[in-house]
Amino acid sequence: MVQAYILIQTEVGKAADVAQQIAEVQGVTLAEDVTGPYDVIVRAEARNVDELGKLVVAKVQNVPGITRTLTCPVVHI
């Protein structure tokens, strides 16, 4: 299982709506609207890196109101 944090910037005033919509996406375990340089932080998981990429590109980035994403895979050292 691959896990990642997805840091999201949204259009002004859209953070809560984006977080709510992303929380319903299969593979997303947590979606919170936050303050700071990013507007929404998401925790997601998938079977492998390819599935994670598909989740981000096909599902998360298609949510209206998102302007930029940064995917940070979790590593266990």
From TrEMBL:
Secretion signal span: none
All residue ranges annotated as the Transcription regulator AsnC/Lrp ligand binding domain in the record: 6-75
Pfam families: AsnC_trans_reg (PF01037)
UniProt xrefs under InterPro entries: Dimeric_a/b-barrel, Tscrpt_reg_AsnC/Lrp_C
Protein name, entry field: Lrp/AsnC family transcriptional regulator
Species: Kribbella qitaiheensis
